[in-house]
Amino acid sequence: MALGGMVALAGSAEAATTLGAAATAKGRYFGTAVANNRLGETDYVNTLNAEFNSVTPENEMKWDAVEPSRGSFNFAAADRIVNHAKSRSMQVRGHTLVWHSQLPSWVGSLGADELRKAMTTHITEVMTHYKGQIAAWDVVNEAFQDGTSGARRNSPFQDKLGAGYIEEAFKIARSVDPAAKLCYNDYNTDGINAKSTAVYNMVKDFKARGVPIDCVGFQGHFNSNSPVTADFQQNLERFAALGVDVQLTELDIEGSGSEQAANYEKVVKGCLAVSRCTGITVWGVTDKYSWRSSGTPLLFDGNYQKKPAYTAVLDVLNGGTTTPPTSPPPSTQPPTSPPPAGSGSCTASLRTDSSWSGGYNATVTVKAGSAAIGRWTVTLTMPSGQTVVSLWNGVTSTSGNTVTVKNAAHNGSLAAGASTSFGFTANGGSTAPAVTGCSVS
Ligand code: 9MR
């Protein structure tokens, strides 16, 4: 991947002057959604070329654009974007192969057998056309419902092929272009909540059964109703711990001025702190052409002027205000001489981060006593009927209503007085469990 801009020397420190170059220096890409019909506008193209090193066609690779009628493919608009990207050595994210929206009506009217054939043909034709040119594909987009059910969204695919359509799509995709990273992409999954936990459980199941999946896209469409939450980074971490890359795929944050800048800063810092967060894509170059233009959610205003949010993002990427990564490598460095196993003490406390009828997410903070510790074990007594459905940054076992959580490989060693945390999602009630013990055995 080539640089999307110049690297300049600022004073004695080397600071990149464009988003693409700054992200590259951090081992990431910085991309934008691109609309084919804007490629004739000079300011648009100049900004795109100067600042970004990855593009996602905003609409041009969707089913209605590339296969408006069965078996008749039209790649002209998407090709123009891909060719532009290639000519500037930018990478391309493919968006998207299987989605309930922007789906031509002929697809929805097929019976199950024909729909399966049509899905197979669609994935095969589109991925073959772009084989070798796409860094990552959003193979399946937005397959889960909003809200607390954790259920799959109704769509022709879900309703006629069953939930297995998702893994069918990923398997076909792998066979067509084995070099492309295969992503699941969704929105309202940017924090720890019932929907993101449902996606998490699907990805975990895919990894356990060898269903090919390489990455999860978090769209990142934020506004006051859907704010950047404190557990944003933690959510990325729990997915990364499953062994997939994570990417911010459609980032935009409504607002203006320093408040918008602060939100962008949080999100970009969150990505930089997670080593498997491989890149960020904002959902458009300029506020002028945003899908929600009135919310002015992007980094350049309608006159292509850099907004405070732009400066905040560039500064974070340049490391000016960034804290070092916390995961991985481990957030707490092992002490230089490891404490003997079983020595020291710890305490644990639990807080509920969010809850809904029938479940909740919680974080447990584990703190070492006055001596360093090398490992820890926390016990929780669950209210009857509750089960832990996913847990991150710890290793769990259950016996009756006692859940025992031991440290993960990276967070057992704590200096005296230092703390770490693990998180989990429970179903079957929303009453918090009791923390019944913390030991270093
Ligand atoms: O930005 C896209 C807009 O131009 C289209 O009209 C819209 C139609 O569905 O899709 C927008 O992009 C969506 C993306 O493909 C998937 N996630 C949500 C995005 C914003 O709606």
UniProtKB/TrEMBL annotation:
It holds the Pfam family Glyco_hydro_10. Residues 339-441 form the CBM2 domain. Residues 325-341 have a biased composition (Pro residues). SUPFAM superfamilies: (Trans)glycosidases, Carbohydrate-binding domain. Residues 317-350 are annotated as: Disordered. It catalyses: Endohydrolysis of (1->4)-beta-D-xylosidic linkages in xylans. Its EC number is 3.2.1.8. Residues 16-316 form the GH10 domain. SMART domains: CBD_II (SM00637), Glyco_10 (SM00633). Keywords: Carbohydrate metabolism, Glycosidase, Hydrolase, Polysaccharide degradation, Signal, Xylan degradation. Transmembrane segments: none annotated. It comes from the Bacteria. Belongs to the glycosyl hydrolase 10 (cellulase F) family. This is Beta-xylanase.
